[in-house]
Amino acid sequence: MKFLLCPIIAQGKAEQAKFYDLFDQYWAQVMQPWEMPAANVAPGFMEKNKGWLRWLLAALALAGLAWTVYLLNQKVDSPQLKASFRNPDQVRMGSNIRFENLSENHDSLCTFRWEIFNDEASQTEGPYGEPEFATTDSFHLTYPVRDMGKSPFKRVRLTSIHPEKGDTAIFEGQFTILCNDPPRIDSVAALAEGQIGQLLDFKVFTPEKKGLKISWDMGDNPEGKAREVKEDFAFQHVYEKDGRYQIRLSVAREGAAGYCQVDTFLTLKIGGEKAYLAAKTLQRDTIAAIVNFSYAMWILMGLIGLPIIWFWVKWAVRPVPPPPADDNDPDLESAALRFKSRDQAPYTIPFRSHGNLIQVEKDLYRLADVMRQRQEGLRREMDVSTSVKKTIAGGGFPQLLTRADAVPTEFLFLVEEQHPDSHQKNLFQWLVDFLRHREVLGEMFFFHKSLHRFWNAQFPDGISPGQLQRLYGFHKLVVLSDGHGLIETTPQFERQRPRLRLDADQLFGHWNHRFLLTPMPVVSWTYREGGLHDRFAIFPMDTEGLTDFVRYLEHEVEDEERPPYKTWCNKLLEKRRETDVNYLSWRTAADHQAYLKGYPNLYKWLAAIALYQKPSWEMTLAIGAALSPAGVDVTYDNLLVLSRIPWLISGDLSPNLRYQLVESLDEETER
Fold it and tell me: Where does residue 208 rank: exposed (0-12), middle (13-18), buried (19+ CB within 10 A)?
């Protein structure tokens, strides 16, 4: 460098020698290591006490190690053996009953003994008596009920035994054997209310009376006395105190195998009744540990804590930093201005609207004409001329006739926004704007499938469903969406007929005239569209579907006049040749070619759209217009076909798919 700079500065031999000398001195100074000058700051507390802090850290480490050794030497008690099982409370004679073993803390050495006792044997044979059944061969027990034994009430005992530890755990349960032909009660004749001293009639009706035993427990026994039980099909009874009585009626079949009794309960109110709150005793809550750490976990946390303490001590004894430089240093201010970032928003290119590039078919103008037609209003006024003519024709007898006023038809358009850059949403919005520019009266709101908020330019923060109903309740409702997000998808409705979610049904049921324009091709309609057809007049969004929508509006078809769903689908499919979009993976360019096999120019348009990294509605229209010499028509139907592609709905084009689409372009189209 000194040989390059010298000819610029030196003008003679002497100046050249002097420059070489000065440059060598400067270079030697630059190459020396730089040391930060020591700050004149008094040493802090940590610097003064570095020695004992190291000893403290070593002491803490030794204490932690000693505590770990102590914990490892502690005897850990093995968990106690626990027996438990689960079984149905009742079983029919001739069936099998299964006992599911839920015992805990057992291993392969444990033995399980199942025993079944007569539950009434404790009255004569001690606590259990002799078991009717016993086995040690099963972990889970399946017991065939072939004989009732001495009683239909059985007690089951499970004994878990560990031979090495000597632990034993016992768990007991019960079940009842029911007969196969229980008696049946047709009805009970009894009053629901009565008075003190009133003679009340009670009667039970059964299909058969032979072999049945009837017992009535009237529920009015005095305290300390046995209950009075009636054993007649019909009898009379008198209550001596007011109150609410619980009457128990039992019908049993005598001599049946198993418990063969049916109970029913009646509530009888006698006199006036006072309402009292039941007295409850406060129960003390118990504290139970939610998480228990093992010794290994404590050791792990201790090992993690040691480096934390080490780095904290290292940070605490760090050198004191030098005082900050003067904030008013002119060199720093000039450097900040010199290196100030020039980067400012926006970071996206704002494209101008290209909606005028879309070629409008005559069917859309026809749709706008029909939607502008006036309809019968709610106010009625006297028709003077017709009344006079009818009066004269009737020989002078006055006849007053009225007519309804004619008002413009108003529509409420609800557009589903799947994504801010969704081509479907932009196509829906273009269609509504086209109709409104043709003097169709209507309001447009955007919504998500959650139906919590509806927004537009007038209400950017959105309005609630209730406000939407109050403000536009007399409009005709037009929903522009596939409607799949409105169908109930919870498990209890999977095997039932599809229907709208409860909140959607309550919201849209407010409007008398409901229409749904779906972008899905008719060949891809499934059970979801069937569920929507029950609440909406549903039409496809292509020009043929909009033509059917025009006929529907002209004839003012009522809901009950709509054809069944299958009939309507077959009618729409007669003139259509569409590709089913339900079974395409959309992962490769070949999938897109299969979808657009009947539209080669549309595939060329789609591949050209992929040249732009992020799909954009305005760029799609501009690219389509630029490809018009190649046979691409920017029409409403063509845009509808493209808008069904998932990545044009979500705005997310994968790099691999984008590469395949761009590679399929020919050079002329790419230019």
Answer: exposed
Residue 99 belongs to what H/E stretch?
strand 96-101
**3-class DSSP assignment, residue 459:** coil
Distance CA 525, CA 504 (A): 20
Token pair 């609630």 in the structure block, residue: 464
The amino acid sitting at 397 is: F
Name residue 173's beta-bridge partners. Answer: 156
Secondary structure in 3-state letters for 147-164: CCCCCCEEEEEEEEECCC
Residue 110 neighbours by CB under 8 Å, 6+ apart? 81, 103, 160, 161, 162
Q: Would you place residue 122 in the very low, low, confident or very high pLDDT band (cuts 50, 70, 90)? A: very low
Query: What Rg value do the Cα atoms of the chain yield, rounded?
Result: 45
Q: What is the pLDDT of residues 1-48, one digit of tens each?
A: 777 777 767 767 777 888 888 888 888 887 777 665 555 555 555 566
pTM of this prediction? 0.49
Strand positions, DSSP E, 456-608: 476-480, 514-518, 537-540
Cβ–Cβ under 8 Å, residues 149 and 117: no
End-to-end CA gap in the chain: 50
Quick one: what percent of the chain has pLDDT higher than 90? 24
Q: Are 487 and 503 in contact (CB under 8 A)?
A: no
Q: How far is CA 648 from CA 42, 363, 411, 653, in A?
A: 68, 26, 28, 8
Closest Cα to residue 484, out of 532, 521, 412, 517?
Answer: 532
The DSSP H or E segment spanning 631 is none
Q: How far is CA 265 from CA 148, 185, 192, 234, in A?
A: 27, 12, 12, 16
User: CA dihedral in degrees (113, 118, 119, 121; nearest 10)?
Assistant: -120
Q: Is the peptide bond before 152 cis (omega within 30 degrees of 0)?
A: no
CB contact at 8 A, 216 and 229? yes
Give dist(CA 315, CA 162) in Å, integer: 57
Q: Which two structure tokens, joined as six digits, stand for 210?
A: 């032979």
Distance CA(544)–CA(575), nearest Å, equals 9
Distance separating alpha carbons of residues 602 and 608, to the nearest angstrom: 10
